[in-house]
Amino acid sequence: MRLLPYWLSLGIVLSVLFIGAGMASAQNQPKQYGGGYVQGAVYGYNMWDELIPIDWAEITASNDIYTFRYSSYADGSYGFYLPTGTFNLTVDEPGFVAQSRTIAVSDGSATTGFNFFLQRSNVPIPEFPTQFFAVLMIIAIAGALIAKRTIKRRNR
């Protein structure tokens, strides 16, 4: 029963780390007045050359002033508002060749069917993101410290 506070505190620390990591990647967007809506989908060819929707693909809309980043949904679709102007839309997903297209957005416009079809890049995809190893090291160090403290208390 004496280990419960340690596990509870470890859980709280890990929760704070995960929440903090999510907040650190958040980005403020400028206020948008006017502009239009852009909607489409991201598809890619799998290893059997079947066309499949790509979820969580990073879609970047940029021009000389702004850069906006979005992600596609589980069904490969995306939709977002952009201010008036000409933007370069780039879709990037590990394992696929990035694709860029230019779009002109006018005030009150709605552009639908702006789809991307990505080809495989045949570059191996890393199994684990780099943050995984940092979290794994934190868990290992915390576990080692708890084990050391437990052994030290038992030897008294």
Q: Which architecture name of the largest domain does CATH use?
A: Sandwich
CATH class of the largest domain: Mainly Beta
Structural class, by secondary structure, is: alpha+beta
- Name the CATH homologous superfamily of the largest domain: Carboxypeptidase-like, regulatory domain
CATH third-level topology of the largest domain: Immunoglobulin-like
Mean pLDDT: 85
**Per DSSP, what share of the residues sits in E-state strands of 2 or more residues?**
25-35%
**How many helical stretches?**
2
Rg, Cα atoms, Å: 23 Å
Number of strands: 9
Can you tell me the number of structural domains?
Answer: 2
Shape type: elongated
Largest sheet: 5 strands, mixed
Question: TL;DR of this structure?
Answer:
By secondary structure, the chain is an alpha+beta fold.
Describe the structure.
The protein is an alpha+beta fold and 156 residues long. The protein has 2 domains: 1-30 and 127-156; 31-125, Immunoglobulin-like, CATH 2.60.40. It has 2 helices and 9 strands, in the order H-E-E-E-E-E-E-E-E-E-H. The chain has helices at residues 4-24, 130-154, and strands spanning 36-45, 51-53, 58-62, 67-71, 77-82, 85-92, 99-105, 110-111, 116-118. Strands 1, 2, 5, 8 and 9 form a 5-stranded mixed sheet that branches. Strands 4-3-6-7 form a 4-stranded antiparallel sheet, with no helix packed on it. Strand 1 (36-45) and strand 2 (51-53) form a beta hairpin. The two termini are 18 Å apart.
List the helices and strands and how they pair.
Elements: H1 4-24, E1 36-45, E2 51-53, E3 58-62, E4 67-71, E5 77-82, E6 85-92, E7 99-105, E8 110-111, E9 116-118, H2 130-154
Parallel strand pairs: 1-8, 1-9
Antiparallel strand pairs: 1-2, 1-5, 3-4, 3-6, 6-7
